[in-house]
Amino acid sequence: MSKSKITAMSLCALLCVLTAGIGLQLPTATAQERNAGPGGGDREQMRARWQQRMEDRMKEALKVTDEEWSVLQPRIKKVTDLQRESRAGMMRGWGRRGPDRDNESERQLNPLQQAAKDLQTVLETEGATSDQIKAKLDAYRAAKTASEAELNKARAGLRELLTINQEAQLVMMGILE
Predict the structure, then answer these.
(1) What secondary structure does DSSP assign to 66-92, as a single string?
(2) Is the Cβ–Cβ distance between 151 and 83 less than 8 Å?
(3) Do residues 42 and 36 make contact, with C-beta atoms less than 8 angstroms apart?
(4) pLDDT of residue 127
(5) What is the pLDDT of residue 91?
(6) What is the mean pLDDT of residues 56-75?
(7) What is the model's pTM?
């Protein structure tokens, strides 16, 4: 397998973790990084370093200058943020728990997340009528459609700036389709 394919596949796998919003420690972290601070290190610092390494690898794979990267990076971030948001409601029905679900009341939910939460709530409500469930399902589907339209618009805006090689790299990384 060629080095560029391995690099692209590695970046794709790393981006999947990044866009899923999972706060994992870097497997490449040094012992000093893992043991720094209370509880094995500051997760936010670890996440920031990991994200910077991802961006550096992506910048290298796309073969762009610092100036070009300053234009592409915000658009790439917008696409990956929208991808993560569009998947936000998908895991609700699987009984997902944890910090993201437990702290929902403390953070602002986007329309898709709110529609997914509302649908899950009605599904968990004993005695919910078919009409109530259908209304929440229709609202979820409408929010999902709007989210996908926004994601497609962001992807198109990013695609406008890319060479065919860069576009192909981002397809392989899972950022574009």
Answers:
(1) HHHHHHHHHHHHHHHHHHHHHHTTTTG
(2) yes
(3) yes
(4) 92
(5) 55
(6) 92
(7) 0.64
Residue 166 contacts residue 176 (beta carbons within 8 Å): no
Task: Provide the token pair at 163.
Answer: 């060479």
Using left for φ > 0, alpha for ψ between -120 and 50, and beta otherwise, residue 39 falls in left
Tokens representing 47? 């996440």
What are the C-alpha distances in Å from 92 to residues 34, 63, 102, 119? 31, 39, 12, 9
pLDDT at 123: 93
Q: Which two tokens stand for residue 46?
A: 């670890």
When pLDDT is cut at 50, 70 and 90, the band that residue 42 belongs to is confident
C-alpha to C-alpha distance for 101 and 156, rounded to whole angstroms: 31
The structure tokens listed for 118 are 């509302």
DSSP state at residue 98? S
Query: What span, in angstroms and rounded, lies between the C-alpha atoms of 166 and 156?
Result: 14
